[in-house]
């Protein structure tokens, strides 16, 4: 089945220790997104790739970076995680446009000790 | 400022009744609106999309309405079941999509 896969599902890191979350998709979609979601809150868009074009949301901290080496893979790097970065990180894709239906992965739950 | 509000954080309903969830927005003019279901610890799953020129959309036990004058969408689940218990998010068809916080629905047997 075509899908969006996120690894790992659970990630524990230490305060200030860099961490990378990964996302892959078999849908061959053009657009890939990274969201941060905290408990009982809306998913907050961090950035998205429209094909190879990277778009950062204005309020995304510099601590968060992303890479998309090819159509299928996208990575979220958190350079120096703080306690406030503990959250669920969701990867999503959409076929063509930014307002298209989004297909989400299962998420990675990040804990910062 | 732009705002999306989903009626309440939590809604409890008896099995078999119709659940109605509300999504209100201000200072947006979306061409369409989407509804997603999110289970605990999982990513959202797309349910329905309704365009601004459509009054109503149905899929099995789900019905969505979209009133661009009132700036409101209603999401109905008829004959609700405990398996419908989840958080339901509305998302405005902006570029990119803008999500609401969601309403946590609990269907009690």
Q: Structural class of the helix and strand makeup of chain A?
A: mainly beta
Order of helices and strands of chain B: EEEEEEEEEEE
Largest sheet of chain A: 7 strands, mixed
Helix content of chain B: under 10%
Largest interface: A-B, 23 and 24 residues
- CA distance, first residue to last residue of chain B: 41 Å
The total count of strands of chain A amounts to 11
What percent of the residues of chain A sit in helical stretches (DSSP H or I)?
under 10%
The separation of the N and C termini of chain A measures 36 Å
Structural class assignment of chain B: mainly beta
Distinct helical segment count of chain A:
0
Number of strands of chain B: 11
Separate helix tally of chain B: 0
Quaternary organisation of the protein chains: heterodimer
Name the average pLDDT of chain A: 94
Runs of chain B with pLDDT <50, length 5+? none
Q: What share of residues are in beta strands of chain B?
A: over 45%
Mean pLDDT of chain B: 92
Percentage of residues in DSSP E strands of chain A:
over 45%
Fold topology:
The complex is a heterodimer of chains A (113) and B (109).
Chain A: E1 4-7, E2 10-13, E3 19-25, E4 31-37, E5 44-50, E6 53-56, E7 64-67, E8 73-78, E9 87-94, E10 103-104, E11 108-112
Parallel strand pairs in A: 2-11
Antiparallel strand pairs in A: 1-3, 3-8, 4-5, 4-9, 5-6, 7-8, 9-10, 9-11
Chain B: E1 3-6, E2 10-14, E3 19-26, E4 32-38, E5 45-51, E6 56-59, E7 62-67, E8 72-77, E9 86-92, E10 98-99, E11 103-108
Parallel strand pairs in B: 2-11
Antiparallel strand pairs in B: 1-3, 3-8, 4-5, 4-9, 6-7, 7-8, 9-10, 9-11
């Amino acid at each position: 089945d075509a899908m969006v896969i996120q690894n790992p599902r659970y990630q524990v890191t230490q305060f200030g220790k860099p961490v990378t979350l990964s996302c892959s998709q078999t849908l061959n979609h053009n657009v890939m997104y990274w969201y941060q979601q905290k408990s009982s809150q809306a998913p907050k868009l961090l950035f998205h790739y429209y094909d190879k074009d990277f778009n950062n949301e204005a309020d995304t901290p510099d601590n968060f970076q992303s890479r998309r080496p090819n159509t299928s893979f996208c990575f979220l790097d958190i350079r120096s995680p703080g306690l406030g970065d503990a959250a669920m990180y969701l990867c999503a894709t959409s076929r063509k446009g930014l307002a298209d239906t989004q297909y989400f992965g299962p998420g990675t739950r990040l804990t910062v000790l | 400022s732009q705002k999306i509000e989903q009626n309440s954080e939590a809604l409890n309903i008896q099995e078999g009744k119709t659940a109605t969830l509300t999504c209100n927005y201000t200072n947006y003019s979306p061409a369409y609106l989407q509804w997603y279901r999110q289970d605990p610890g999982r990513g959202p799953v797309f349910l329905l999309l309704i365009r601004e020129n459509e009054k109503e959309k149905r899929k099995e036990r789900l019905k969505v309405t979209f009133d661009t004058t009132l700036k409101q969408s209603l999401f109905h689940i008829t004959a609700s079941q405990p398996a419908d218990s989840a958080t339901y998010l509305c998302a405005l068809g902006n570029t990119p999509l803008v999500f609401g916080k969601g309403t946590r629905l609990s269907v009690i047997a």
